[in-house]
Write a structure and sequence with these properties.
Length: 537
């Protein structure tokens, strides 16, 4: 009886949330039947979601990018044609296809086409360095790579022969997404026997990118987010967060339910973002926190040039909001900021509303509907309110385990977020830091050991240690300490070492500063005492 009442209560909440978001609306019996068949046939992932939009709102703008506007009908037909051409190139269900694209129609075309074939989509981080990409592709073994032309050089060492260019800046003889769309049939495809998986890369404890796969999310996942973030149907949403990131992709997927128009630009620029929002009269703005900081750094007269009044929700995720960023943003642009705490593995855990952030700007807010967040001690027991412990999360989007094997610790169906936190008396969650040494800088994960190893591979460096220190713009930044040959500068300077790291690792792993010291502090067993490095000035 108790479980039955809980299901009824949850169902009532879902109906209320969906109705409030404008998703529940009357359709003709014929259209309802088509929608039911579409979802039953294609599932609730991107293949089924965008196919249903072509039924519900075929002439409604679905995407706006630097090339213009596409309706949901256009998107459906383009992805059908691309899928038929990919199938002619040997891509079949169960295969993997890597996608390395910035935010533009090619990302969406590729994602939908691969899903319609029942193949899996592996999203590559556009900030990865060449060696990382080669390692990931060697492990994941995709049957094809669809990438923007600018990444051709980075992918040179990868052994994937089936390559298609997405965004191109000039005429090319190479196969492109647009050429394959033009050559393919836009007719509906025969559904595959399996549904596509989405694989988003994260970093492991050694800093090596890992694949975190997920099957299709149900409607409950969307209801959870909408229960504390008032997005509405048929809004225009400027997704500035990278689409290959969990947060950016989540809003592309959420738009399938809401019928939102995704407004995209390939690169983030603070003034351009304001201009795009004003010109398109966007209702929502999807960001990582450093983007907010960069906009606030614009001269006030520049910000005032653009009308931001259409924006009703600014949704941030990827890292903590540093310092008074939340208050500064809301003072400048209004109380429309929502901050979402989560990770690639657990998706979402809690949402801080403008009211939460006004009261406590360093809070991660409260868990949304159908989400459980518990603070556990090392033995897996829940700790009292106010006491710190490891954060464990349960929701409808927990990942399935890394593609290379292994996963996150699970206790009673709840998955470790890898963070330490606590609850206050009002039920707000506070994230106090990682339960290991991982640094989150500007929404990206950085592991000190990987940077240390990279520095030590330089001929002039004897040893190195790296720590994370606070940074107003990025939340955390990396400070590296190096010992060079003969206790001198070893003929190398800070700029050269930064260039060295940049050539071998992703840009976000380059230390913001490198300090030359005579020796690293160590204990009797030779372990570096990093706590002493935090006292360095």
């Amino acid at each position: 009886m108790g479980q039955g009442r809980e299901r009824l209560k949850s169902g009532a909440t879902s109906v209320k949330v969906l109705a409030g978001s404008g998703v529940v609306r009357p359709y003709s019996p014929v259209k309802l039947a088509r929608l039911a068949r579409t979802v039953q046939t294609w599932g609730t992932g991107v293949a089924g979601g965008f196919a249903s939009l072509a039924v519900r709102h075929p002439d409604h703008p679905g995407l706006v990018d630097e090339l213009g506007t596409l309706t949901f009908g256009d998107i459906h037909r383009r992805s059908n044609a691309l899928a038929s051409s990919l199938r002619a190139r040997g891509i079949t269900e169960g295969d993997g296809v890597a996608v390395m694209c910035r935010n533009h129609r090619g990302f969406v075309d590729a994602s939908l086409a691969v899903a319609k074939l029942g193949a899996d989509v592996l999203y590559l981080n556009t900030a990865f360095a060449g060696p990382q990409l080669v390692d990931v592709l060697a492990r994941e073994k995709p049957g094809a790579v669809i990438h923007d032309e600018e990444f051709t050089g980075l992918l040179e060492g990868a052994h994937v022969e089936n390559r298609i260019l997405a965004w191109t800046d000039s005429e090319t003889d190479h196969d492109t997404v647009e050429k394959l769309i033009a050559a393919g049939s836009s007719a509906d495809l025969k559904p595959p026997t399996r549904h596509s998986r989405t694989i988003i890369l994260t970093s492991g404890t050694t800093g090596t990118p890992k694949g975190a796969p997920r099957n299709e999310a149900g409607i409950d996942a969307a209801v959870s987010l909408l229960s504390r973030m008032p997005l509405k149907a048929r809004w225009k949403t400027h997704i500035a967060a990278p689409l290959f990131h969990t947060w950016g992709f989540a809003h592309l997927a959420l738009g399938m339910l809401l019928g939102s128009t995704a407004v995209l630009t390939r690169r983030f620029d603070p003034e351009t973002a304001l201009k795009v929002i004003a010109e398109n009269e966007c209702d929502s703005f999807i960001v990582i926190p450093v983007m907010l900081q960069r906009i606030l750094q614009l001269p006030e007269e520049t910000r005032a040039t653009y009308d931001f009044s259409s924006v009703k929700v600014v949704a941030a995720s990827g890292s903590a909001l540093p310092g008074n960023l939340a208050l500064n943003w809301m003072d400048a642009f209004g109380d429309t900021l929502y901050n979402i705490y989560g990770s690639t593995e657990i998706a979402y855990a809690s949402i801080a509303t403008p009211e939460d952030l006004r009261t406590s700007p360093d809070s991660a807010g409260k868990p949304p509907h159908a989400t459980v967040v518990r603070i556990l001690d090392p033995d897996g027991r829940e700790v009292p309110q106010g006491q710190s412990g490891r954060i464990f999360v349960g929701n409808g989007l927990l990942f399935e385990g890394y593609t290379g094997g292994g996963g996150k610790e699970v206790v009673d169906g709840l998955m470790s977020s890898g963070d330490v936190g606590r609850y206050d008396a009002a039920g707000r969650l506070y994230v106090e830091g990682r339960d290991d040494e991982m640094i989150v800088s500007g929404g990206e994960n950085v592991f000190p050991k990987e940077v240390e190893d990279c520095l030590c591979r330089h001929d002039a460096v004897v040893e190195a240690a790296a720590i994370g220190v606070d940074d107003d713009a990025f939340g955390k930044r990396l400070r590296a300490f190096v010992v060079v040959t003969d206790g001198s500068d070893g003929g190398v300077d800070e700029s050269e070492l930064k260039d060295w790291v940049k050539a071998n690792l992703a840009r976000f792993k380059v230390p913001r500063e490198i300090v030359f010291i005579e020796e690293l502090p160590r204990n009797a067993t030779g372990k570096v005492l990093k706590r002493e490095l935090f006292d360095w000035e």
